[in-house]
Design goal:
90 residues; four-stranded mixed beta sheet; 37% helix
């Protein structure tokens, strides 16, 4: 997505709750990468968007892991499902 002066990003991780047909998602964002920041990064010879994306993804993964640990849950793949399954630790 784009605003007047920045690109806007959101991370989404959809999941299905085990033994139900209910779906949900974890969301992080929105976060912006402004045109001003882009110009500063380009002048410094740095791919600032890549670095920002990596930092945001690390924080997103950390928050998902904390949530799963807090509720004693896990995410796993299951044959025939297109999204991850969220369920209790076993």
């Amino acid at each position: 997505m784009r605003t007047d002066d920045a690109d806007v990003f959101v991370f989404l991780l959809p999941f299905e709750t085990e033994d139900t047909n209910k779906t949900g998602e974890w969301r992080r964002g929105p976060w912006k990468y402004s045109d001003v920041q882009k110009a500063i990064d380009e002048k410094a010879g740095v791919d600032g968007l890549k670095l920002r994306r990596i930092r945001e993804m690390v924080e997103f993964c950390r928050s998902v892991e904390q949530e799963l640990t807090k509720h004693r849950e896990r995410l796993c793949e299951s044959p025939g499902h297109r999204i991850l399954i969220r369920g209790p630790l076993r």
